[in-house]
Amino acid sequence: MKFSNLRKNKNFKYLVALIIIFILLGIPSYIWTRRNVTTLAGRYNSPMSPVIMIPGSSASANRFDDLVKTVNRQYGEHHSLLKMTVHTNDKITYTGSIRPNDDRPFIVVGFENNNDGYANIKKQAAWFNLAFNKLKARYRFNSFNAFGHSNGGLIWTYFLENYFDDSTISINQMLTVGTPYNFEEKNTSNRTQMLHELVKNRDKIPEDLTYYSIAGTQLYTDDGIVPLGSVDAGKYIYEGHIKHYTLITLTGSKAQHSDMIDSNQFITIFHQYIVGNGVNNPGRSKTNKKVPKPRQ
């Protein structure tokens, strides 16, 4: 009888111990689940949809200061500007801020190592991923638009193919200017290693993306730096895979590689398709300008 009671007591102690273990294991899981649900709920309800911008090689996070000022002044809008610089030790420094209730802020991500070359573009895409993860955790947005100048478009492409895998966030529209998908090569038959790899991994790019690629034709064959054929090579990555791909060519005195983002043509296109998601006179615009029709 005593042996039976001892056995029952022992089994009871084991049962209590197991219950305690399950509770201890379940608490972290419960906390994680609750936090995750809260984050998803906040992201689902977030009205913010920022414009995230990446400058080209040798340019800092200050590259688009004048562009943001021009858009705000010309269209009577008040977009915030937050600038981030990712350093080679993975630390991030910040300048500026996002105003409360600003649904369409501008966020620029630059890099301490802003050198050219495919190896550096891969590193910059990894650094950009660090910044992007910080942004989505802090602001919980569920959609965004992308802009890249020159190699900034390459960083966006490599990021979309290798890092962007969050099903709770969508990239709606992307615009790039003078992005050299085949570097200095004019003939797309001579594909660089970078172009070959970007084409190979294109299936990882979100299919519902709308993308506008701008090429400058100051000299009718290039923008003074990037050949038209190199910008046009982006079609091998995007065309036929995403929802919409459009190549736009700019001409005139400001069709040079570094000057294009200051041209009236570009600013009109940028405001309509990136700030306004393709809607004429978006937001609080006070102008009534016609936008040049993109060439398919």
List keywords for this structure.
disordered C terminus; 8 helices; globular; alpha/beta; eight-stranded mixed sheet; 40% helix; single chain; Rossmann fold; 296 residues
Structure description:
There is one protein chain. This protein has an eight-stranded mixed sheet with strand order 3-2-4-1-5-6-7-8, sandwiched between helices. It has 296 residues and is an alpha/beta fold. The model is unreliable at 29-33, 35-44 and 280-296 (pLDDT under 50). The longest helix has 44 residues, at 2-45. The protein has helices at residues 2-45, 65-75, 118-139, 151-162, 193-200, 228-232, 235-238, 264-275, and strands at 51-54, 81-86, 92-97, 106-111, 143-149, 170-177, 210-216, 244-250. The protein folds into two domains: 1-45; 50-275, Alpha/Beta hydrolase fold, catalytic domain (Rossmann fold, 3-Layer(aba) Sandwich), CATH 3.40.50.
